[in-house]
Amino acid sequence: MVTSGSPSIPALDLANQAAIDAVFHLYDPPLWLVTARAGKDRGGCIATSVTRASIVPDLPRILIAIAQQHYTWQLIESSDEFVLHLLAADDLAAVARFGLLSGHTHNKLAGLKLGKTPRGAPRYEQAVAWLGCRVETRQTIGDRSVYLAAITDGGVLRQAPLLTVSRLVQDAQPEQIAEIKRLYVRDQHIDRAAILLWRRDRAR
Ligand SMILES: Cc1cc2nc3c(=O)[nH]c(=O)nc-3n(C[C@H](O)[C@H](O)[C@H](O)COP(=O)(O)O)c2cc1C
């Protein structure tokens, strides 16, 4: 049975789900690489849930949503810092490394030529651009934590077209697409259970 987990939120039938999904296919978000460091531990993951959250030039801020099962989430929780990178369109290797493996089982930064931000966080030098971010506040939303962060520094490293979701789908090898789909479905199950639990707890 379909449930929203909350009496005030309607459960969605399949037609409504498809209509909503079609809206998300109308735009093409960039892929961001999020790196973080906590003590000696370092890691990173790919994220599309990234939004500019301030238009004030001297008070730049950003919102990101990171799933709590990710190793990168642990690093951000421990350090309250992360680095965002915009990737080059041809950098599918970064997706394979950071989006398909987990830092729980792999040292994702091993063997990479990395720089450092002025605050000592790992910077991915093949990126097109980067932003150093410091968490100001967070909200747990069941499956993910939403972080509002102050942007402390950043820069454009080179001029190149950006990697976006449609570019990834167009250029990735069929095996890579199949693995992305498999992980997407796995994460949907984990996230669904966590959202329903969160809603039920709030309704009590
Ligand atoms: C195109 C794409 C977009 C993604 N967007 C997000 C996102 O916005 N938030 C998130 O928590 N995970 C996102 N992921 C999933 C993580 O990047 C992935 O699960 C990663 O392996 C987690 O690594 P970690 O456990 O080392 O942190 C995305 C993955 C891909 C391929």
Order of helices and strands, N to C?
A: HEEEEHEHEEEEHH
Main CATH class: Mainly Beta
Task: Give the biggest beta sheet.
Answer: 7 strands, antiparallel
Count of β-strands: 9
Distance between the termini: 21 Å
CATH superfamily: Electron Transport, Fmn-binding Protein, Chain A
Question: Roughly what fraction of the amino acids lie in strands?
Answer: 25-35%
Query: For the CA atoms, what is the radius of gyration?
Result: 18 Å
The CATH architecture is Roll
Please give a handful of descriptors for the protein shown.
binds flavin mononucleotide, globular, 5 helices, 9 strands, alpha+beta
Task: Describe the fold and architecture.
- This protein has 204 residues and is α+β, with helices and mostly antiparallel strands.
- The chain has a single domain (29-203), classed as Electron Transport, Fmn-binding Protein, Chain A (Pnp Oxidase, Chain A, Roll), CATH 2.30.110.10.
- 32% of the residues lie in helices and 30% in strands.
- The chain has 5 helices and 9 strands; from the N terminus they run αββββαβαββββαα.
- The protein has helices at 14-24, 71-79, 92-99, 165-171, 174-203; strands spanning 32-38, 41-47, 50-52, 61-67, 81-86, 114-116, 122-124, 129-140, 144-156.
- The strands form 2 sheets. Strands 2-1-5-8-9-4-3 form a 7-stranded antiparallel beta sheet.
- It is globular.
- The mean pLDDT is 96.
- The protein binds flavin mononucleotide.
- Residues 31, 43, 45-49, 65-67, 70-72, 95, 99-104, 144, 165, 180 line the site of flavin mononucleotide.
